[in-house]
Design a protein that fits this description.
Blueprint (H helix, E strand, L loop, with lengths): L8 H32 L9 E2 L8 E2 H4 L12 H9 L2 H7 L17 H11 L4 H11 L6 E2 L6 H8 L4 H29 E2 L17 H27 L11 H6 L5 E2 L5 H5 L4 H12 L3 E6 L7 E4 L1 H7 L3 H4 L14 H12 L3 E9 L5 E13 L2 E9 L3 H16 L7 E3 L32
Helix pairs in contact: 1-9, 5-6, 5-7, 5-8, 6-8, 7-8, 8-9, 9-12, 12-16
The protein binds flavin mononucleotide.
Protein name: PAS domain-containing protein
InterPro entries: Ankyrin_rpt-contain_sf, PAS, PAS-like_dom_sf
Keywords: Chromophore, Flavoprotein, FMN
Length: 452
């Protein structure tokens, strides 16, 4: 060691420079992977680099967004951050009420309280930091802003994401999901691809070897982006563009007149859509737009009698609305229907959970079909009010529901469980796997079945 000459300043600089280049190349990998995946799935991406400096960008620097000092959001201080980190959800809800503009509070560098809370949610394992992020977004926190150096909420998120993987991954996925919900696909892609003042996108801050989570999160975003394109088109058929029928209309009011459903005499689609949670309105609208076969029942009915039928159900099963309305749907089952799967459905109903099962059903003419069935609760005014049962549910809807359950749980809302056939794969077909007939089961569990 004694004989070794200390490196000259010049040498240090060269080494530092080489390291920077190496790091920069490694960092580019996640972003290149993301772009390749998007293009591979047919998602159109603007080839121009996105940056807050670009006038077409929807991302604005906080300092530039507000023209007058009156418009500027609150500055956050230590007591406000302490409240966000340690306060109860009730206290925070009161503080960030939309008219207070606290949800958009920022510091002198334009870093927002949303960025701070997202970062913290990666390191604190309890649910409340995620619930705070959700509350901020619902109270008007704008995720499409960046700080003075061009970093947006995702720069912070990817930069901070370090193992341990399961917790961090779950928190990252949750937050990306919340942002997706708040900004839509376009906004999320823009956040993912927007460069800061050094020319780095959020993914460029990932150190792939240290943060194995990035690929999972990127794959999730790519899948949303690909399915959303299809989804958006179908959805706009039943909703019309926002504000097209009067901006004061709620989403549920906008979709009601466009939904094709047959309801019980004396009730209307508007009745059961009243006060329904937006995520649930969206599911019903998607199902109608995609011409899915589904039924709706009222939870207050002890025998889950059907109150609405989609036209596709009539086409697929041969049962007319008058055969179905006011009855329980167990008449679709028959001798070959798996008892275990029906048991799962029963359990889901009893615990206000979602059931995602595959079982043998019978059409009116006695022919059979394998029903990839999804039964999921719908909420109105915070309570589970209805159940929708979807025959041969498309994966995209099932995935959407799974995310919704996760989101409700994070918000501390009792979302019930997710009951599927994962635990006993041999008894039934899994979603996405080729279908196989359910095991024959001669014994009917229930008297009064229409088939046997
Ligand atoms: C809205 C709704 C739709 C349903 N659709 C189906 C269906 O398509 N196929 C099926 O086998 N069971 C379906 N079911 C389940 C049965 O109606 C019933 O709940 C299940 O057989 C368990 O209850 P049971 O033990 O009283 O028969 C549906 C239930 C509800 C609430």
């Amino acid at each position: 060691m004694h004989g070794a000459r200390p490196p000259t300043r010049h040498r240090y600089e060269r080494v530092a420079h080489a390291n920077t280049n190496r790091k920069r190349d490694a960092r580019r990998r996640p972003k290149d992977y993301f772009l390749q995946q998007l293009v591979g799935k047919g998602v159109r991406v603007d080839p121009k680099p996105l940056s807050f400096k670009n006038p077409d960008s929807k991302i604005t620097c906080v300092a530039l967004k507000y023209r007058t000092t009156d418009e500027l959001p609150e500055m956050y201080d230590k007591p406000l951050l302490k409240l966000m980190y340690e306060g109860s959800l009730e206290e925070i809800r009161e503080k960030v009420a939309p008219e207070s503009r606290v949800a958009n509070a920022q510091n002198a560098n334009g870093e927002t309280v949303l960025m701070k809370c997202c970062r913290r949610a990666l390191y604190t394992t309890s649910r409340s930091p995620l619930a705070v992020v959700s509350l901020l977004l619902k109270s008007g926190a704008d995720p499409m802003v960046c700080c003075d150096s061009g970093k947006n909420v995702l720069h912070d998120l990817f930069w901070s994401a370090k193992p341990p993987p399961p917790d961090v991954l779950e928190a990252m996925e949750t937050m990306v999901d919340m942002l997706h919900e708040s900004t839509g696909k376009e906004g999320l892609l823009e956040l993912m691809l927007s460069e800061d003042k050094h020319g780095y996108t959020p993914l460029d801050y990932v150190v792939p070897e240290q943060q194995p989570n990035w690929r999972k999160v990127v794959d999730t975003v790519v899948a949303w982006a690909a399915s959303d394109a299809e989804h958006d088109e179908a959805f706009s058929c039943v909703t019309g563009p926002p504000g097209s029928q009067g901006s004061s209309q709620t989403l549920s009011e906008r979709v009601v007149s466009n939904l094709e459903l047959v309801t019980e005499a004396g009730s209307t689609v508007a009745d059961f859509m009243r006060d329904m949670e937006p995520a649930d309105v969206r599911v019903v609208a998607q199902l109608c737009a995609r011409r899915c076969s589904f039924l709706v029942s009222d939870c207050s009915d002890p025998d889950a009698a059907i109150i609405a039928v989609s036209p596709a159900f009539v086409d697929r099963t041969g049962y007319e609305p008058e055969d179905v309305l006011g009855r329980n749907c167990r008449f679709l089952q028959g001798p070959g229907t798996s008892v275990q799967q029906v048991d799962r459905i029963r359990r889901a109903l009893a615990t206000r959970s979602t059931a995602d099962v595959s079982l043998l059903n019978y059409r009116k003419d006695g022919t059979t079909f394998t029903n990839r069935f999804l039964l999921t609760p719908l909420r109105a005014a915070g309570q589970v009010r209805y159940y929708v049962g979807i025959q041969n549910c498309p994966d995209v809807i099932a995935d959407d529901r799974r995310r919704n359950v996760a989101r409700l749980r994070r918000e501390g809302i009792d979302a019930g469980g997710w009951i599927d056939d994962e635990d006993e794969p041999s008894t039934s077909a899994k979603r996405g796997a080729p279908s196989s007939p359910a095991a024959p089961d001669a014994k009917r569990r229930k008297e009064g079945c229409a088939i046997c």
